[in-house]
Amino acid sequence: MHNSILLALWALVSFILYKTVTFVVSDVRYRKRERQLGCKRPPTIANEGLLPFGISNLRKIIKADKEMRVAPYLYDRTNGLYSENGALLTTFYQNVLGSPAIFTVNPKNIQTILATQFKDFGLGSTRNSNFAPLLGHGIFASDGKQWENSRALLRPQFAREQVSDLDLEERHVQNMMRCLPVNPDGWTSTTNIQTLFFRLTIDSATEFLFGHSVDSQLSDLPGYTSKGGMEVDEKDFAIAFDKAQAYLAKGARMGDGYWMAHNAEMRAYCKRCHMFIDQYVNMALSKPKGSSTTGNGKQKYVFLDALTESTRDPVELRMQLLNILLAGRDTTASLLSYVFIMLYEQPAIFKKLRNIILEEFGTYENSKEITFSGLKSCNYLQWCLSETLRLFPVVPIDGRRALVDTTLPTGGGPDGHSPVYVRQGMQVDYSVYVMHRRKDLWGPDADEFKPERWDGRRSGWEYLPFNGGPRICIGQQFALTEAGFVIVRLLQRFEEMDGQGNSWESKKKGGHGFVRQWLTLTSCPADGVNIRLKEARH
Highest taxon of the source (predicted)? Predict the structure, then answer.
């Protein structure tokens, strides 16, 4: 026992010495190159606590994560930092487990990372290796040629004629409506509508992707019987998918120590996800071409069938489908959940939006045709979506690794105006959640939900709900169209909301952080959206 303790202490001392020497040598080289390029170092955020190598800072992040408030924690920390001239500090150094990293909420720097110097930055081997057990080397977990091939493979599948098929969406919305029966008093029972949104989006996403919906919304209806014949069903998959993402998110918080989150349970969840997707891949590879048709005999568009025209590799198909399913399910369901929290908090906006919807699209029972172009041209609906995504971007925090020695245009020096040297391998993290709430960019009411702020506003790099540059989300229009359609149909049917008793409702005066967020690879309200709805009487 005594020898074991001595050995552990020796290992710890050796690690500290190694990190210290490595840091000093690296810092000397860094400063020399920095001077050669005419760059200045941004302010460094001190390690808050007694533990070295940024461990104390990491503990604060982990604590915030457990409290479901990582994004608000970063907002609070950033908004307490100012440069020597009194301006908000938008770019700074931080220590992550002994490795220096940069954090920025500056639109110019984010534009540089994502667009103007795109080839200088990538997801990096650490992030890709962290995501690989679940997502393989799909579009969200690859760089360079692998990413280019994935992008080229997937992009044609999101043409307008594919994403504007609202007949498909209406079928799944009607299933959701069946899960919202109205009591004799005209109100539904209190329901976590976020759960319905996640089921709706996985149902529509699986029909779009696989040609067959998992119909998860039907599973809780009276008289439902399972289709059977599947080794992993939609409920098993949904649980495993969420759990696996949670492990990957934990790994992402650990940086280069991501592997510590990859335990046997995580691998088992990933395996369940792969088994679920493989069932559909095998069916697609075994059926004859042109066998997918609609009820009227027309050729039905199926994402997976289209992919099999380009590749017959079952692992490649599985990984691309998992990547797209992640975006197709989580992005839209999270957006809808945040929209309904905001509409509950702002009854006047709910009423105004509903009146506009009735005027432009008719009532629930006598609805006019709802089209892709009609949704796009409904300005107030689009403003509500944009404002929700401003306050609650579905991916609030992201980052890139420098693939070569490079620079950022601003953030260096005491005043924050000089260029910043970024050496190869350095992590650069950015938060659109924080940037979207900067009062110097959005005004003193930046924390408030005000759709009217979008009247005549043309946003630039200060607004990035779907990322930007070559990696901009290829499913952006799919998500916005689906979300807009669901909002229209719900507000056609229901005229009032009640959500008293929600944890977020009791904190509505608490500013930006009143909605706890469950943050995995995406964000959603951690406490659900428990509301009841009053059916309109016409």
Answer: Eukaryota
Contact 316, 292 (CB under 8 A): no
CATH number of 38-535: 1.10.630.10
Six-digit token pair at 527?
């406490």
Among 307, 311, 234, 239, CA closest to 268? 239
Tell me if 418 sits within 8 A of 493, measured CB to CB. Answer: no
Q: How far, CA to CA in Å, does 257 sit from each of 19, 143, 260, 527? A: 15, 20, 6, 29
pLDDT in tens, 473-506: 988 988 999 999 999 999 999 999 998 767 665 4
Phi-psi category of 54—alpha, beta or left, where left has phi over 0 and alpha has psi -120 to 50?
A: left
Laid out side by side, the sheet with 99-104 consists of 91-96, 99-104, 427-431, 397-402, 121-122
- Report residue 273 as tokens: 């996800």
CA 489 – CA 173 distance, rounded (Å): 8
- The pair phi, psi for residue 352, each rounded to 5°, is -65, -45
Tokens 């360079």 locate to 144
Please state, in angstroms and as integers, the Cα–Cα distance from residue 494 to each residue in 219, 343, 365, 504, following that order.
24, 13, 12, 22
Backbone angles phi and psi of 498, in degrees to 5: -135, 130
197 within 8 A of 184, measured Cβ to Cβ: no
Could you tell me where the DSSP H helices lie in 346-371? 347-361
The candidate with the shortest Cα–Cα distance to 158, out of 479, 475, 498, 530, is 475
Look up residue 470 and give its DSSP letter.
G
> What are the domain boundaries of the chain?
38-535
Please indicate, yes or no, whether the overall pTM of this predicted structure exceeds 0.90. Answer: no
Tens of pLDDT along 499-533?
A: 876 766 545 544 555 789 998 889 999 999 999 99
Annotated binding site: 473
CA distance 26 to 38: 18
Q: Summarize the annotated binding site for heme as residue ranges.
A: 473
What are the residues whose beta carbons fall under 8 Å from the beta carbon of 276, sequence distance 6 or more? 230, 232, 233, 234, 236, 237, 240
- 3-state helix, strand and coil shares in percent for the chain, rounded to the nearest 5: 55, 15, 30
Name the strand (E) or helix (H) holding 96.
Answer: strand 91-96
State CA 384 to chain mean position distance: 18
Low-confidence ranges of the chain (pLDDT < 70): 1-4, 6-9, 11-16, 18-28, 46-54, 82-86, 96-98, 160-162, 222-231, 289-300, 501, 503-513, 538
Residue-wise pLDDT tens digits, 346-389 = 999 999 999 999 999 999 999 999 999 999 999 999 999 999 99
